[in-house]
Amino acid sequence: MKFKRYIAAALSAAVIAASAAAAAAADFTDISGHWAEAMITDLADRGIVNGVSETEFNPDGTVTRAEFLKMAMEATGIETVPYRDGECLDAKKSDWYAQYLQSILDKGLVPENMVAGYNLEVKRGEDGTVKTHYSGAFNANLPITREEMAVIAQYTYQYTRNANTMKDMKQGEDLPFTDADQISGWAHEAVKLAYAQGFISGMETGAFEPKATLTRAEAATIISRMITTGTAG
After folding, report:
1. What is the distance between the terminal CA atoms of the chain, rounded to a whole angstrom?
2. What CA–CA distance (Å, rounded) separates 201 from 161?
3. Torsions phi, psi of 44, nearest 5?
4. What is the pLDDT of residues 84-143, one digit of tens each?
5. Which among 37, 74, 79, 141 is most buried, taking Cβ atoms within 10 Å?
6. CA distances in angstroms from 225 to 9, 22, 92, listed in the order given
7. Based on the structure, what is the number of domains in the chain?
8. Are strands 116-124 and 130-137 parallel, antiparallel or unpaired?
9. Structural domain boundaries enclosing 209
10. Per the domain annotation, does 13 fall within a domain?
11. How far, CA to CA in Å, does 192 sit from each of 14, 112, 156, 167, 171?
12. How many other CB atoms sit within 10 Å of the CB of residue 54?
């Protein structure tokens, strides 16, 4: 896969959420010759990303929905909020990602198509305040697909734009991918925008493979691009 290697200077040390001991890139025995070796090496030497162990980064391992959500929120500066029982879909207070999911639910940034059994109730209290309640399952430990990644990346990035920086956001154009017609309708516009911003690119075959799962190396690259674009904007 051909990815440009953008290196983010400000990526949080916790950006790769598959937590394990941090390690210098020189200790990773599984990235030699990998297409993302240079980027992983730089980020690890800066203490920005962690390996899955002291000697392995597992660049081709999958990334869960929760892990990428955490990365995207940290890349864009979206803060967590305290977990509220009964208002965080299928997450429990003990789940490490609960505060991330609660925050993004509060902001309306979780696509309903990523919530199994999605249901939204809107209630008006006696004081006139309107409360919304989501129900369903986010299934945070599922491997995230490439189209889901593009949606989360674009939604979180766009949420943090203000009136001045929004005008610099590039508009989506027709996608060049050979399998663009296989992108789910609910994700298509976000994929177009994520591509326009330079967050995502296609495979060497010219396809996007929207239903394929994301790897740790790809996730690190995309997050780095998001930060670079956000800083430039």
Report:
1. 27
2. 22
3. -70, -40
4. 999 999 999 999 999 999 999 999 999 999 999 998 888 787 787 887 778 999 999 999
5. 74
6. 11, 22, 32
7. 1
8. antiparallel
9. 25-77+143-232
10. no
11. 28, 19, 15, 17, 8
12. 14
SS3 annotation, the chain: CCCCCCCCCCCCCCCCCCCCCCCCHHHCCCCCCCCCHHHHHHHHHCCCCCCCCCCCCCCCCECEHHHHHHHHHHHHCCCCCCCCCCCCCCCCCCCCCHHHHHHHHHCCCCCHHHCEEEEEEEEECCCCCEEEEEEEECCCCCECEHHHHHHHHHHHHHHCCCHHHHCCCCCCCCCCCCCHHHCCHHHHHHHHHHHHHCCCCCCCCCCCCCCCECEHHHHHHHHHHHHHHHHHC
20-71 residue pLDDT tens: 434 455 578 998 999 888 777 766 776 556 788 889 989 999 999 998 998 8
* Pairwise CA distance, residues 99 & 105, whole Å: 10
Q: Is residue 137 part of a domain?
A: no
Exposure letters 10-34 (e unless 16+ CB within 10 A, then b) = ebbeebbbbeeebbebeebebbeeb
Say if 136 falls within a structural domain: no
CA distance 232 to 41: 23
Length of the chain: 233
Question: In this structure, is residue 191 part of a structural domain?
Answer: yes
